[in-house]
Design brief:
The protein has about 290 residues and is α+β, with helices and mostly antiparallel strands. A hairpin with a 4-residue loop joins strand 11 (about 240-250) and strand 12 (about 255-265). Helix 2 runs parallel beside helix 4 and helix 4 (about 90-120) crosses helix 7 (about 270-285). It is built from seven helices and 13 strands. Helix content is about 30%, strand content about 30%.
């Protein structure tokens, strides 16, 4: 954030901080959506010019109306540059108040596309073939292991000694209604994961925790309606857990509900960036027409 100290410490800076540093949704420990670094224009040198996202504020009494402009790849690639210009602090505050949600949406979308572009260039061909059996495409890159797959369920993961990033793809019969309820999505999720996941103990499997009510969002992307669910998973008869996000899509021609979800396991450590990588994959989901 390139901004003078006065406006950074007052209303304009407060609105931007509240918008961009709000809590990342449904994480088991609080983390901000984005980390912000504030500098003045005089300190904006080569070190800061390589950042992926740059917000620049210019206050000049010779400016007519307050404006916002978006640009790309000015000092680095890929890079999103957002320029806010206003004749005075009051006009800047009004502009930011109006545009704060759009600023956030553009940063989120650009950051996600940046990851997707990398993943699309390095798709695993074997995983691509498995995923196409569910009549969808996904940008799952090389490096993911194929844990298991059959006609109704597939699991792909990256595992280390301390962390896990897992993608599930599964489908179940479409009951016929045009909307998908959160209750139905969670019930089907729990049934599927009880059937196909295993912990280290007997009768141990992944399920949806009741400690955190799932958050549901309706999303339009790639020409289709998706239901996004964010929540926490836990290991039944075990001690593991973490955040998950899923997208459910109705494939009316095949009379199926197709689900792609990802979860993270990284106990006592930050999970935001790992979830963001999984979200890039999940948001790449497209129905094969």
């Amino acid at each position: 954030m390139v901004m003078d100290n006065f406006n950074w410490k007052n209303k304009a800076g407060e609105i931007l901080r509240k918008t961009l540093e709000q809590e990342y949704p449904a994480l088991t420990q609080p983390e901000p959506l984005f980390d912000m670094i504030h500098i003045t224009a005089g300190a904006f040198d080569n070190i800061f010019q390589i950042h992926r996202t740059v917000l620049m504020v210019n206050i000049d009494e010779n400016i007519g109306n307050a404006t916002i402009k978006y640009g790309e790849n000015v000092w680095a690639r890929p890079q999103l540059v957002i320029r806010l210009e206003a004749p005075d602090s009051h006009a800047l505050e009004e502009l930011i108040n109006i545009e704060s949600d759009n600023i956030l949406k553009n940063i989120v979308a650009y950051d996600r596309k940046r990851i997707q572009d990398v993943y699309n260039d390095s798709k695993d061909p074997e995983i691509k073939k498995i995923v196409s059996g569910f009549n969808i495409s996904l940008a799952i890159p090389r490096g993911y292991n194929i844990d298991l797959h059959n006609d109704e369920f597939a699991s792909f993961s990256i595992e280390t000694a301390k962390t896990s990033q897992v993608i599930f793809v599964y489908e179940y019969p479409w009951p016929g209604q045009n909307t998908l309820s959160t209750i139905d999505i969670i019930e089907e999720r729990n049934e599927m994961l009880k059937k196909y996941t295993r912990g280290t103990r007997a009768d141990s499997y992944i399920t949806t925790t009741e400690l955190y009510p799932p958050q549901t969002y309706d999303i339009q992307k790639n020409g289709h309606h998706f239901v996004e669910v964010r929540g926490w998973w836990e290991l039944h008869n075990g001690y593991m857990g973490g955040p998950f996000v899923s997208h459910s899509l109705i494939d009316k021609e095949r009379k199926k509900v197709v689900v792609v979800e990802g979860y993270v396991y990284n106990p006592n450590n930050r999970k935001r960036n790992m979830m963001r990588q999984l979200e890039a994959i999940i948001y790449s989901m497209k129905l094969i027409e």
